[in-house]
Amino acid sequence: MAAEDQNGGGRSALIFLGTGCSSAVPNAMCLIQPSNPCDVCPQALSTPPDQNPNYRCNTSLLIDYCPSDGKHSYILIDVGKTFREQVIRWFTRYKIPRIDSIILTHEHADAVLGLDDIRAVQPYSPTNDIDPTPIYLTQYAMESIAEKFSYLVKKKIEEGKELRRVAQLDWRIIEENCETSFIASGLQFIPLPVMHGEDYVCLGFLFGERCRIAYISDVSRFPASTEHVISKDGAGQLDLLILDTLYKTGSHNVHLCLPQTLEAVKRICPKQALLIGMTHQFDHHKDNKFLTEWSEKEGIPVQLAHDGLRIPIDL
């Protein structure tokens, strides 16, 4: 797998701000009912998170995009419940000064409930007199977020009401299909609609010209048209597939679990894959040993990602 790099330099990079499920790891129930704890959750609190790959915040990816002009742009995919914690841990470690664009996969809590905290990484203005951060999302997600965060969407202040400092966001609607790409901070993205349960469509995203990367955080099934776009036997082999895996065994109605994830990796056949969205069932070191053996057998390098992982890459 690509090695972690602590230095910014002049290259683009992927920074995994979170690699855990919606409830994150450690799981609260394992800590408040310690008579029957799992092995992973107590261990996840035993060392600092930057030294502990079993401590997992909500899934989120930061793309540090540095084209040939050397100017960095910072593109965030998803802003979940643990966003503030991710900023304190990883923005400070990697010297991320701002967010230039935001992309949302869907409107569930683990993808959007940190939106209010975007103001913490925007320039300070008590009157909200700043350039809003572009945020790309589907019409369905926009309608849901307008109900959850009406104060972030409605700009007109009613007479007699106080002006309050909130995150300033420029909402931009994107399509739910592989044919209509969009540009965020100079980087092209192709939406990858996938099923997140049979009654709900979530988006993954394909990006990168020098390296083709697909990020798919919440999926239970791939429509044939989406799988074609990202598969070796379809539109072309991916350099990196970042893919959902919720539990180690069994199946789930709205997520892939490890058996289905590995079958999908074999079908799509990327050059390498990193897995995200894990529950406390996964022990990073032990399960990566299993995945190393699987990778040698199948010829596709696969590993669990971890919070804080930074991968230099040419986009």
Automatic annotation (TrEMBL):
Residues annotated as domain Metallo-beta-lactamase: 56-280
Matches recorded under InterPro entries: Metallo-B-lactamas, RibonucZ/Hydroxyglut_hydro
Any GO molecular function: hydrolase activity
Gene3D superfamilies named in the record: Ribonuclease Z/Hydroxyacylglutathione hydrolase-like (3.60.15.10)
CDD domains (UniProt xref): metallo-hydrolase-like_MBL-fold (cd16279)
Pfam families for the chain: Lactamase_B_2
UniProt keyword list: Hydrolase
Ligase found in the keyword field: no
PANTHER family xref list: HYDROLASE C777.06C-RELATED, HYDROLASE C777.06C-RELATED-RELATED
Protein name: Putative hydrolase
